[in-house]
Write a structure and sequence with these properties.
Residues 80-265 form the Peptidase M48 domain. Pfam families: Peptidase_M48. It comes from Pigmentiphaga humi. This protein is mainly alpha-helical. Among the domains are: 8-267, no CATH class; 412-499, Alpha Horseshoe (Serine Threonine Protein Phosphatase 5, Tetratricopeptide repeat). The protein is 69% helix and 3% strand. The chain contains 24 helices and three strands. Strands 1-3-2 form a three-stranded mixed sheet, with helices on both faces.
């Protein structure tokens, strides 16, 4: 579950006060606001929150939660975490919803499950793990909460009080939508955390998530001791009052009984000695640098990586130099970044994240054509990496080769399907080419995929006005009707819920 103390304004009694205040302040104004897809949760006495409605609730929260400044939209990190989640959930029951992982820029050690199979993973948690099986163990535990539907069950038990808090959360998010300076805009995950903290996963639920996660961990071939070793280390450090680990232990109550249960289960199965993937080292390095909140913290992280590079060898040394390189990039010291990159790739060392770094360095030198060459070569070698597809499109755009961009992105939208940025980038290139209809249709797709339905409809209406093709106009009209139907349904659900 989330940490309710992630944002100072939600600590202690403030969390208990802010949500009712937001409800009274914003709920009356919801009807004319852009709908957020709030599901009809029905009578507060209902005995079950259906999986479909739980999914719609999760989708509604995530549409706005992506505005939270700590939400990390990084293809490399998301794809890595999603890959682990897919390995684990493949060993879960068949009716398990799709698990969608997203990183959160926060140095505290925590992870949390949200409605609808969404799981947030703090950068601090990844950095704190000592091996990939530990990371997989924590993720398996969170997926265990999803498999056992603990959030839905908790909401049903709390009934109307929890529904009011959910309404307050979404009302605040809607109110903040048009004002990026509003304090509510930065509280998305904090308010979700406050709601989840009220659900209070019991020790029994935690044990249930442990056992379900343990089965997935074993089935996916990870070392099952990873779960017990990480939780055990957190239990020890929380006793020493280390604030970074308290975030997890407050929301995931640990006990000797739970630890003994995990250790006993580990003794009864074969232990897989699974080596860390190369990706683990590079991802952990990037997350350590990403969570640096200031220039001084970034410099401290660079010094850490330089020290690690001097003490390690092989892939760990390369990942340390990679961390230093992206740190120097952040400091805009491109000469130092290039030097660290060369050290990371010495001995013909290669990795797709190093290849993406090479593209970024070329773009920093304003050598867009070289960046295109590097990006295309890298994507040809690692075609399963979405970040490299994005690198190709970005490089082509920087080189002003917009006709190539739109052709490339047509292929990528068919291949990946669920990447909004491909449509946003295509819209930019269509604009440069003076093709207004395609520009607006792609922006409409981007808005629809990110939940901004009124903006999507507006873009489509502009596209229709610019089009002279009857069949194209008919396609646009059909899409507009579909989006308007979705918008009406969401508004009706919101009104029924508020009533």
């Amino acid at each position: 579950m989330p940490n309710p103390d992630r944002f100072p304004s939600l600590r202690g009694k403030a969390a208990a006060l802010i949500l009712p205040a937001l409800l009274s302040a914003f709920v009356p104004a919801l009807a004319p606001a852009q709908p957020v897809g709030l599901p009809d949760l029905g009578d507060s006495a209902a005995q079950e929150l259906s999986p479909r409605l739980e999914q719609r609730l999760g989708d509604a929260i995530m549409v706005e939660a992506r505005r939270d400044p700590t939400y990390v939209d990084d293809a490399e990190l998301t794809q890595y975490l999603t890959g682990i989640a897919q390995q684990l959930s493949a060993k879960a029951p068949a009716d398990t919803p799709e698990i969608r992982i997203f990183p959160v820029r926060d140095s505290s050690i925590n992870a949390f499950a949200m409605p609808g199979g969404y799981i947030g993973v703090h950068t601090g948690l990844v950095v704190a793990t000592q091996n990939e099986s530990e990371l997989a163990g924590v993720m398996a535990h969170e997926i265990g909460h999803v498999v056992q539907r603990h959030i839905a069950r908790g909401m049903v038990q709390q009934k109307q009080d929890t529904l009011i808090m959910v309404a307050a959360l979404l009302a605040a998010l809607v109110a903040a939508r048009g004002n990026s300076q509003a304090p509510e805009a930065a509280l998305a995950f904090g308010q979700a955390a406050a709601i989840n903290s009220q659900l209070g996963f019991s020790r029994g639920a935690e044990r249930e998530a442990d056992r379900t996660g343990f089965q997935m961990l074993e089935g996916a071939g990870y070392n099952v001791n990873g779960m017990a070793s990480f939780f055990g280390r957190l239990m020890q450090t929380s006793g020493l009052n280390e604030s970074t680990s308290q975030a997890f232990t407050r929301t995931h109550p640990l006990s000797i009984e739970r630890m003994s249960d995990m250790q006993n289960r580990a003794r009864s199965v074969a232990i897989h000695d699974k080596a860390n993937s190369q990706d683990y080292y590079f991802v952990r390095a990037k997350m350590r640098m990403l969570q640096a909140a200031s220039g001084q913290e970034a410099l401290d992280a660079i010094r850490y990586f330089e020290s690690r590079a001097a003490e390690t060898e092989g892939i760990e040394r390369a990942a340390a130099y990679y961390g230093a390189a992206i740190g120097w990039m952040r400091q805009r010291n491109f000469a130092k970044a290039e030097e660290a990159y060369q050290a990371a790739t010495s001995g013909a060392r290669s990795h797709f994240m190093l290849a993406r770094l090479a593209v970024d360095l070329a773009l920093a030198r304003n050598d867009a054509n070289q960046a295109v060459t590097l990006a295309r070569d890298a994507y040809a070698r690692w075609p399963e990496q979405r970040a490299l597809a994005l690198a190709v499109a970005e490089s082509l755009q920087r080189a002003g080769r917009h006709a190539e961009v739109v052709d490339f992105l047509k292929e990528q939208t068919l291949k990946w399907g669920d990447e909004p940025r491909f449509y946003q980038m295509a819209a930019t290139s269509y604009s440069r080419l003076g093709r207004a209809v395609e520009e607006r249709r792609n922006m409409a797709e981007f808005y629809a995929m990110t939940g901004a339905l009124p903006a999507a409809v507006e873009q489509l209406q502009q596209a229709r006005s610019a089009s002279k093709d009857f069949y194209e106009q008919s396609q646009i009209d059909a899409k507009v009707r579909e989006l308007q139907r979705r918008e009406r349904e969401e508004r009706d659900l919101l009104k029924r819920f508020g009533g």
